[in-house]
Amino acid sequence: MKTIISTFKRRFLIFLTVFGPATITAMADNDASGVATYSIAGATLGYPILFVLFIVTFLLGITQEMGIRLALITRKGLGDLIREHYGVRVSLFIFFCLFIANLGTIIANLAAVKATSTFFQIPALPAVVGIVVISFFFVTRGNYKVNQNIMLFVSLFFLTYIFSAFKAKPDWGAALSNLLVPHGAHLTPEYIRNYIIIGLGVLGTTVTPWGQFFISSFAFDKKIEKDRIKYSQLETYSGAFLTNFFSFFMIVATAATLYAHGIPLLSGEQASIAIAPFAGNLAGILFAIGILNAGFMGVVIVSLSTAYAFAEFFGISGSLDKTFTKSRAFYLIFLAQLIGAGILVLLPSISLFHLAIVTQALNAVMLPIIFVYLLKLTNNKAIMGSYVNNTFQRQFGIAAIYIISAAAVLAVILTLAK
Amino acid sequence: MLFFSELIGKTVFSEHKHKLGLLGDIFFINEDTPRITKIIVSINKDQYREIPITALRKVNGHIIVAQAKATSTILNELSLKKVLLDQQIIDLVGNKVVRVNDIVIQDAPGLTLSGIDIGVMGILRRIGLEEIIQKLMQTFHFNIPQQFLSWGDVSNLDLDYGQIKIKQREEKLAKIHEEDLADYLEMTNIHNVHKFIGTLPPKKAAEVLQSLTVTYQLEVFQRFDSIKGTELINLIDPDEAVDILLAIDRERRDSIMKLLPLNKKQELHRLMTFSRTPVGNLMTSEFFAVGSQETSKDIIKQIKSDTAEYSYLGPIYVLNRDDQLVGVFNLHELLLQKADIPAYKFMIPEPSMVLLTTPVEVVVYKLLKYNISALPVVNRDKKILGIITIDDVSEILLKKIP
Description:
The complex is a heterodimer. Chain A is mainly α. Chain A has helices at about 1-20, 20-30, 30-45, 50-75, 80-120, 125-140, 145-155, 160-165, 170-180, 190-205, 210-220, 230-260, 270-280, 280-315, 330-345, 350-380, 380-385, 390-415. Chain A contains 18 helices and no strands. In chain A, helix 14 (about 280-315) crosses helix 15. Chain B is about 35% helix and about 20% strand. The mean pLDDT of chain B is about 85.
């Protein structure tokens, strides 16, 4: 018995040494635009959308596992491998799309911060500038270890959604059963249409192009040893579960309040104000804190993923453990995104709603493209050796590419047809 | 000077204009002067053919190859596409520097790699936007600098293990201009050669020394003691030996002469003493030189306006930003170029040159050996002082006819 406990203890300690990249990437999927999407999903569609969340969890776990396996076996990031195996043309194209899509995602996050700051009666300008400045110092001043730990700590704030959900007194039986089979909604054509568009939004905000790049870069930056790959794989699965565990409560919180009372939610950022009358003021405040926190995490991680991808595609030095002067271009790309997004979000003439739609569409279209390369690389025995994808992973990957492509095309058509 | 990106994907024809396939890859030998050994022509998706570089007839425009037998693999041979293109370059301490955006190939005398393009222009060239962007930049008087790494800075040893490692720290890395690549490569090779020349067999060392341009020959030679110097002088061609001996100071020359075997000493002594006419007296200052960045269109315009008074226009010399001689081309080569091609792209780098101390006999020998109409005379800093044409030395040639 004693040996079992000590073996477990030893294994747990090893797990802690690799712990970080996958959990942080997964948690950042619940960035402010993610929270907004889940809130709208819950408010518009009720519990049945939880079925999509259930499937997306597996998709996230399996694709993130491919990403981290690729990084640990090759000792390179996804950007490195795409450039080395598919050349400069493909690299430039993907980087350009990633840059635009990420810029959109950062703007969406800052917009959420801006909207939520009014909930606390903070003016928009200092709130946005504050987040940008904090994010910049956070990344340039800290090293890998400190930044990782702060981000893990910040993830704890996602617990606030659980409180909000419980305060909303939901129908737990309906919520849990809808995870496996969607039921209980009145299927109007309008409802089905929204289900497809918002469902893709849920997928698009959880499984993201930047997430595919970030997990491999961040794992590489952590310098995890190859022989600990089992522990990292375990972390990707637990991370995927954990992030959607929180998403579950976000959807439940709005489904139990807004959907149940037939109150439409026009923008996700309004969720904290909207749920307050039903779930109480405390639930609203907790929800708002959650969004601010998610906004910070989203801004940092998404702009960091652009900088990592740039460094990998063009071969410059890029690591949180390098000083500003050593990795200048890396940090400058990071800063340029932050400032660009900050300025755009403060311009009153920019329609944030349209921007969010364009961003999501771009993310959705990019996702299958990136999957194709991720799958090609992890299917390649010359690159992966004995860690090459197994039959299930190969077929699951191909199926995912087809389904996402079809859903993306359908959603774009439905949005345009509106 | 060619870029790999200009060759890859080009159609390869046989001598009878029969289409063979597309150029897919190039193989080279990983050594100080990396010679290209063969090209890979892909016929379709799974089929390809290896063609030895000796069968290559023409590279500009279409690629034309002669009939050839398949080659065997050569030791140290590497695939340019696999080990170089798009790969990561790291510095001495392992920091990431940049990726290989393109590769510079010189075609004088055989095809060799001379440098790596690490600049933004390299990326633009790869995606076919170089010309458009360059024209756009010119209209706004803005210049994207080209950035190159010389092959001389790449560690051969690490490349064998699949790593492109430079021999310096990133901060000390020399990013050089395209026109100086060949020159810089020669210079860095000298440093290596000098370091290892003690370990090289004397014959090989002499061979290396002979292949250098005269200014570098001197630079290397200055670093040897008299014994090693004598050994080398004894092994290289007499005319090259005389050229070196006359350029070094008298004391050193005498001490080397003393150590030479008798027959060699007599031969060199004869060559040195019958050279009574100084090169400076024969040399003319009527020559035409252009900057390496000037385009063929501008050069032709300049020739029309500036050389009307010339009695003779021979080869055109190319100078780098420091006015050093880095290349040469003739009028025929110039006329074949498209309008916007800069001189460094079509010049022949590292032309043969002579010094003021070079005996006239050696000049004549070189003019005939290389079959050229004129030779530039340079100072030790590679700046042109004048040229000597076949005409200038014709009297000496006539005297030789009994």
